[in-house]
Amino acid sequence: MESDEVAAAIVYNPELEKFLLVKRAENRERFPNHWEFPSGFIKEGETVENAALRELEEETGLKGEIVRSGESFPIEIPKVHVHPVLVRTDSEDIELSREHTNFRWVERSDLEVLKTVPKLKQDLENVGVK
């Protein structure tokens, strides 16, 4: 079975020195109530970077600027290939889509105590955030 291609927008606000996480709605089939970066499937003919910016805007209302793309990696359950993209935004004005119920600006250390989707830290590492 082929894997789906997913772009993940690792959103960083330099003024806050924090990253944006969104909480998946409880009615989501996979990983309900888990924290994640805004992400979604890459459409045919779409670049990874454009998909990350589109998903960011669809899921949060934010516009961002690409800082850099990271090395992609597989996740087995569900079978997806994640393409992390570090995105900078100066805005804090979030308008969540119905896919998510909450958002938080977090520091890297906050990830230790949050219930996150699989390999969320891999997203950060692959865009150069240690």
Automatic annotation (TrEMBL):
Its EC number is 3.6.1.55. PANTHER family: ADP-RIBOSE PYROPHOSPHATASE, MUTT_NUDIX FAMILY PROTEIN. GO terms for molecular function: 8-oxo-7,8-dihydrodeoxyguanosine triphosphate pyrophosphatase activity. The keyword Glycosyltransferase does not apply. It comes from Candidatus Nanohalobium constans. It comes from the Archaea. It holds the Pfam family NUDIX. Keywords: Hydrolase. SUPFAM superfamilies: Nudix (SSF55811). The gene is mutT3. Transmembrane segments: none annotated. This is 8-oxo-dGTP diphosphatase. Residues 2-128 form the Nudix hydrolase domain.
